[in-house]
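go over both lines:
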Amino acid sequence: QVQLVESGGGLVQAGGSLGLSCTSSGRTLSSSSMGWFRQAPGKEREFVAAQSWRGAPTYYSDSVKGRSTISRDNAKNTVYLEMNSLKPEDTAVYYCAASRLALFTSSQAITAKNYDSWGQGSQVTVSS
């Protein structure tokens, strides 16, 4: 298993940008597909973005597509989520997750049960 720690959350105004980081200890991320999920108050956890262990393909939810970028630095054992043009509805706790699967299809990438390790979450609050 791998231990994941998110950082970079915070308060940002609508229209602004924010970057989240997720650093791994244990299993190296170069052998893991990585995903980002989020959970808003009173709502279920939802998929945000994912990247196969090879660096491609990448997948994004419709709600963040065009505004977000998932990337990784295997040398730093870190995966990133950059979000732009933030909206109040982006307010949520954001979780990174690691998977031993290749996640070569979107159905695999968006399914939380395909991820075996999760971070503790990082709060992102977007004010209007």
The helical segments are 106-109. The chain is about 5% helix and 50% strand.
